[in-house]
Amino acid sequence: MDMVMKVLRLRIKLKNALSVVVERRVGKQKLIELLEGFSHSEHYVKAAQRPQHWTVWFGCVCLLHCLLDADHLKQQLLRVQLTTSPSETPSSLLHHLSTILISLGNHRPQTRAGLLMLLSAWLHNCPLAVAQFISIEENVQYLTTHIDGYGNEGSEAENQIVRGLIAFLLTICLVFDETGVDQSRKNALSVVVERRVGKQKLIELLEGFSHSEHYVKAAQRPQPLAKSAQDLLLDYHFTKFFKSVEGSASTLKS
Q1: According to DSSP H, which parts of the chain are helical?
Q2: Where would I find the Vesicle tethering protein Uso1/P115-like head domain in this sequence (predicted)?
Q3: What end-to-end distance do the CA atoms of the chain give, in Å?
Q4: Contact residues for 184 (Cβ-Cβ < 8 A; gap 6+)
Q5: Nearest to 53 by CA among 110, 118, 119
Q6: pLDDT tens-digit readout, 191-232
Q7: Which residues pair with residue 40 across a beta bridge?
Q8: Chain centroid to CA 91: how far?
Q9: Neighbouring-strand partners of residue 92
Q10: How far apart are CA 77 and CA 67, in angstroms?
Q11: 42-59, pLDDT tens digit by residue?
C-alpha cells in the first residue's frame, strides 16, 4: 500500500508539472504532434484494461489539459489515427476512446469519468468532432441508455458524477453541433434525447453534478485532495471548464 501511495504522489506531481507545460501554447502543440506520430494504440487499450483504473484517468486528464482553451488543436487531434494490431485498418483516436467507453458498460466509474471529461472538452466548440461522434449510433445509444443506469461498481456519489458527465456530454452534442451542413441530423439527435431522456432531466443532472461533494472538493485546489488513487474522479481544471460553459444548458429550455 505504501508503494501504491508513493506512485500515486509521483503521478500527481508529474500531472501538475505537465499542466504547467501544456498551459503554454507551444507545449500543447508539441504534445498533439507527438500523438499524431503515434499510430499504434495497443498499449493504450491494454492500459484501459488494467486493474489500476487511475492510470487511464491520468492519461485522459493530461490530454484534457492540452485541449482546454485550445480549440485550434481539437481538429488537429481528429487526424490522429490508431490501430490495435498491425493487421487492422487505422481509425481515429476519437473512435477508439468512444469504443473503450462503450465497452465499459456501467462498470469502472473512475475510468468512465476520465473518458467523459476528455470527450466533453474535445467536443466543446468543435462541430466537426461533434459530427463525427454522434454519427456513430452506438455512441448516442450508450449515452442515452446509461444516463439512467446505476453502476455495478462504485458508490452512489461516484455514479452521480458519471451520470452528470454523461448529461454534460449530451448537452455539448446538442448545443455545439452547429455545422449547418445536415440540420436533419441535429434535429434527429434532439428528438432522440428528448424521447429517451428529456431535456429537463439533463438540466437537473447538471445541477446535481455541480453541487455534488466530488465537484466541490475538486474545485477547491489544482492539486487533487486524494487519500488514495480511487479517490480521483474529477479534475480541478475540468471543474473550471464546466463552470464556464454550464450556462449553455439554459438553451435547452427553449
Answers
A1: 2-22, 25-36, 42-48, 53-67, 72-78, 93-103, 109-123, 127-134, 137-146, 156-175, 183-196, 199-210, 213-218, 236-245
A2: 55-246
A3: 52
A4: none
A5: 110
A6: 889 999 998 999 999 999 999 999 999 999 887 766 777 778
A7: 83
A8: 19
A9: 81
A10: 9
A11: 455 555 455 556 778 888
